[in-house]
């Protein structure tokens, strides 16, 4: 059974400066990496003889409109079924250059996860063979999970934010 | 005689037309969005070469309800009702998964009794889920009897839900911090009755199907997937176990006291439709085993955690007790203090690993909530699984994958 520290150490030894912000909130190893390193990182984790991170649990994104230059965070949840540990990798992207390489060559399941992330956040996965909307209709011209799109009609005055939501 | 007839036909043909030329042309076939066999609203556009499926493409999103967006404006306890409507065949699992995610964020340790009650309800939900899936698989192969026969037991499970939370399908069961009420004597009686009766019913169901020649001809070696491809496609739950990988969240990352129970993980070999059917059947036996253990060892004590700032107080307390009234008001208005943090919590849902990725910024609602919906991820493999097979096989594969439209689209 590998501890989070041991896993983190293996990753730091290989990638050094390219990985940062190590943390383990609620016992789940979390760190950040760069757009250039994300595919080499996942390839390394998948091929590593002791880690064997062979399962992609999830890809999603988070929008932080207030952090300039790091507006979007693409989150990868990975799972090593042989060693039973999970890890979470984050890649921060700027809204002006919202591109990240696709993970489909490594995991076939990345296909729809990336399409969903594109659909809801507008993150463009370079090299994706079929990057179309998946949940929303094709004609939609915005990405609804971004924070600037309110859930409800902004012109309503009977609903005060302090009482009915953020 | 046949050749004579053919000769006659040939003779009657106009000489200049010559023999009939067959052009190798593909047919496009729409399977869905509203097709009796899709069990929900989603479309498959199949390219057929005669009877054989050459390729397929799925169109989903017909019942996308933007749960992740809605959740960003709702207090934590109101999100439970959204989770009901994802995999509506096993709502209690979704409910409990969500409660446990929030409890993990808030750091609430819930008492053993509540954990055991949750295990009982989750296993009942798993049984109901597998009952529907396997019953419908029988219907799609032309065997209506098994489905009708076993549906009575699903009804009985729903009556247990009714006894516990008042609802049947979209249950909204349990609370953050425990259960809303203890198991009533009627609920205990109904669970025990189910445990007595169900083995007989399930045995009979298995007798109808397991070695049934017609059924086996339809499902054996249909829609198989290798363990390697299944893992690459993000399969979880019974579908992955049918392919031979013994991954079960209940064992790998035990939650809600699953480590206290003894049960086996059934695995298949070829990952075909028959293996998926058999794995689900066996899981129902294992679920019964877990429920029996939980009922026999049900601990005494409170059914909710001692966390008054998060757990909605009993109504009679609210009328008499000032503090309970304050907490009641604060919780209902969503004014609880949530810590800043991010949590990923996974439970073994009816059809796979159901994950909740919750990011809290300390506000009254999640900053971001993402549902890892198992069937959204594994349904990608569907065209690959039915390539080269016939349309009737495609129908059977779809129902054996247990794709629930509500979960697919969230």
UniProtKB/TrEMBL annotation, chain A:
Catalysis performed (reactions): a quinone + NADH + 5 H(+)(in) = a quinol + NAD(+) + 4 H(+)(out)
Record-annotated NADH:ubiquinone oxidoreductase 30kDa subunit domain positions: 33-153
Superkingdom of origin organism: Bacteria
Membrane-topology descriptor: Peripheral membrane protein
Gene3D superfamilies: NADH:ubiquinone oxidoreductase, 30kDa subunit (3.30.460.80)
An example Gene Ontology CC term for this record: plasma membrane
Family matches, as InterPro entries: NADH_DH_suC, NADH_quin_OxRdtase_su_C/D-like, NADH_UbQ_OxRdtase_30kDa_su, NADH_UbQ_OxRdtase_CS
Alphabetized UniProt keyword annotations: Cell membrane, Membrane, NAD, Quinone, Translocase, Transport
EC number: 7.1.1.-
Cellular localisation: Cell membrane
Gene Ontology molecular functions: NADH dehydrogenase (quinone) (non-electrogenic) activity; NADH dehydrogenase (ubiquinone) activity; quinone binding
Pfam families listed in its UniProt record: Complex1_30kDa
EC primary class: translocase
PANTHER family per UniProt: NADH DEHYDROGENASE [UBIQUINONE] IRON-SULFUR PROTEIN 3, MITOCHONDRIAL, NADH DEHYDROGENASE UBIQUINONE IRON-SULFUR PROTEIN 3
Function comment: NDH-1 shuttles electrons from NADH, via FMN and iron-sulfur (Fe-S) centers, to quinones in the respiratory chain. The immediate electron acceptor for the enzyme in this species is believed to be a menaquinone. Couples the redox reaction to proton translocation (for every two electrons transferred, four hydrogen ions are translocated across the cytoplasmic membrane), and thus conserves the redox energy in a proton gradient.
Subunit comment: NDH-1 is composed of 14 different subunits. Subunits NuoB, C, D, E, F, and G constitute the peripheral sector of the complex.
Family per record: Belongs to the complex I 30 kDa subunit family.
Protein name per its UniProtKB record: NADH-quinone oxidoreductase subunit C
The species this protein was found in: Spirosoma endophyticum
UniProtKB/TrEMBL annotation, chain B:
Main location as per UniProt: membrane
UniProt catalytic activity: a quinone + NADH + 5 H(+)(in) = a quinol + NAD(+) + 4 H(+)(out)
Assigned keywords, A-Z: Cell membrane, Membrane, NAD, Quinone, Translocase, Transport
Alphabetical list of Pfam families matching this protein: Complex1_49kDa (PF00346)
PROSITE patterns according to UniProt: COMPLEX1_49K
GO CC list: plasma membrane
Gene3D superfamilies: Cytochrome-c3 Hydrogenase, chain B
Oligomeric and partner information: NDH-1 is composed of 14 different subunits. Subunits NuoB, C, D, E, F, and G constitute the peripheral sector of the complex.
Protein name (Swiss-Prot/TrEMBL): NADH-quinone oxidoreductase subunit D
Name of the coding gene: nuoD
């Amino acid at each position: 059974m590998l501890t989070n520290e041991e896993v983190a150490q293996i990753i730091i030894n290989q990638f050094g400066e390219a990985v940062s912000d190590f943390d383990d909130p609620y016992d789940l190893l979390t760190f950040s990496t760069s757009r250039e390193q994300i595919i080499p990182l996942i390839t390394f984790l998948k091929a590593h003889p002791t880690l064997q991170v062979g399962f992609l649990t999830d890809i999603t994104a988070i929008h932080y409109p207030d952090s300039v230059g790091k507006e979007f965070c693409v989150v990868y949840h990975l799972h090593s079924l042989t060693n039973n540990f999970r890890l979470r990798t984050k890649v921060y992207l700027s809204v002006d250059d919202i591109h990240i390489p696709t993970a489909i060559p490594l995991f076939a399941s990345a296909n729809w996860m990336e399409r969903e992330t594109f659909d809801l956040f507008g993150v463009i996965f370079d090299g994706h063979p079929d990057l179309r909307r998946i949940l929303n209709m094709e004609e939609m011209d915005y990405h609804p999970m971004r924070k600037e799109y309110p859930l409800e009609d902004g012109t309503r005055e009977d609903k005060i934010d302090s009482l009915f939501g953020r | 005689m046949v050749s004579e007839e053919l000769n006659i036909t040939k003779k009657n043909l106009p000489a200049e037309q010559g023999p009939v030329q067959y052009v190798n042309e593909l047919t496009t076939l729409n399977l869905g969005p509203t097709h009796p066999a899709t069990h929900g609203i989603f479309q498959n556009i199949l390219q057929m070469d005669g009877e054989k499926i050459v390729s397929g493409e799925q169109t989903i999103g017909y019942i996308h309800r933007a749960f992740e967006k809605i959740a960003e404006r709702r207090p934590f306890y109101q999100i439970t009702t959204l989770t009901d409507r994802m995999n509506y065949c096993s709502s209690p699992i979704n409910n409990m998964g969500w409660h446990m995610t929030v409890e993990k964020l808030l750091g609430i340790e819930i008492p053993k009794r509540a954990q055991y009650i949750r295990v009982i309800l989750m296993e009942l939900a798993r049984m109901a889920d597998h009952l529907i899936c396997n019953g419908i698989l029988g219907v799609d192969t032309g065997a209506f009897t098994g489905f009708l026969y076993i549906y009575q037991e699903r009804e009985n499970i729903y009556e247990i839900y009714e006894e516990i939370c008042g609802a049947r399908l979209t249950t909204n069961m349990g609370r953050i911090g425990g259960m809303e009420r203890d198991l009533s004597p009627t609920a205990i009686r109904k669970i025990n009755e189910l445990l007595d009766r169900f083995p007989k019913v399930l045995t009979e169901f298995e007798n109808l199907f397991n070695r049934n020649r017609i059924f086996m001809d339809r499902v054996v070696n249909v829609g198989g997937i290798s363990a390697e491809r299944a893992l690459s496609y993000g399969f979880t739950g019974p579908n992955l176990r049918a392919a031979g990988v013994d991954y079960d969240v209940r064992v790998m990352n035990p939650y809600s006291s699953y480590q206290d129970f003894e049960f086996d993980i059934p695995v298949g070999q070829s990952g075909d439709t028959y293996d998926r059917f058999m794995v689900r059947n066996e899981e129902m036996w294992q679920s019964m085993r877990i429920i029996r253990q939980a009922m026999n060892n049900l601990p005494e004590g409170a059914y909710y955690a001692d966390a008054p700032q998060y757990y909605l107080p009993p109504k009679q307390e609210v009328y008499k007790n000032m503090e309970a009234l304050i907490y009641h008001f604060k919780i209902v208005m969503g004014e609880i203090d949530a810590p800043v943090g991010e949590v990923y919590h996974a439970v073994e849902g009816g059809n796979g690993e159901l994950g909740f990725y919750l990011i809290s910024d300390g506000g009254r609602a999640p900053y971001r909530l993402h549902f890892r919906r198992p069937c959204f991820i594994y349904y990608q493999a569907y065209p690959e699984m039915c390539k080269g097979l016939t349309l009737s096989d495609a129908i059977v594969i779809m129902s054996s994958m247990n794709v629930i439209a509500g979960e697919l689209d969230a």
